[in-house]
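Final report, Chapter 2: Outcomes

The project's central promise was a pipeline that accepts a single protein chain and returns its three-dimensional structure in a standardized token representation, suitable for archiving and comparison. That pipeline is now operational. To close this chapter, we reproduce one record exactly as it appears in the project archive, with the input sequence first and the structure output second.
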Amino acid sequence: MYVYVTVFVLGSIIGSFLNVCIYRIPRHKSIVFPSSRCPGCNSPINAIDNIPILSYIFLGGKCRECKQKISIRYPFVEALNASMYVAVVWRFGLHWYSLICMVFVSAMIVITFIDLDFQIIPDSITLPGIGIGLICSIFVLIDPYNRSDSIGIINSVTGVLIGGGSFYLIAVLSRGGMGGGDIKMMGMVGAFLGWKGVLMTTFVASLTGSVIGIFLMVLKGKGRKAKVPFGPFLALGSLISLFWGQELLRLYLTIS
């Protein structure tokens, strides 16, 4: 129990940093300097007012100085990252692999919210992510489709090529229907999860994206050509692949 509480607290602290990344990276601002400030009055946020989740509650969701309402997204991202870290430890235990999974999860969260806001997936996340995934595949990463074995560099490289290559082909055939950010993101997914992870991620993302797209067209009146960012669906698919890839593969083989 104490382990989960500690991991939750750590995850919420890192989640607070993720909020900084989500806000500043697409605006091409430093994620280090200056310190956190109110988005309304630009006043520096005191340490006591920057405690993840709790400060938002104690301040009633408002800035101490200008009283402007602060988006609930901030504590939501903190709680989401914290909960995902707990889920990683619950699923994989205390292991070096879990630490790498936490890095991957946090990257997916940042990508999701940036893509929702700006319809971009920053190279500053995906390109280093590809390199980290390839390096970790040699020493740390476990194959989510065969947890008794490591992914290995060949599987990881194949994942990068299939992930990035297939989405590049889609972009060419659709004449821009798929963005460059999605291509690099799938390269990153392939580096971490291998080629099977790429296929499962693509399947889940396509399925959920289609369902949400139809929902928006029917209930929200969005046209068929309305842009819906695909990054959040890819992130969801990659996390499902990470946590339940082996079980989903067994289910598929059983049904087929």
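Archive annotation: The mean pLDDT is 91.
This record, like all others produced under the grant, will remain available to the consortium after the project formally closes.
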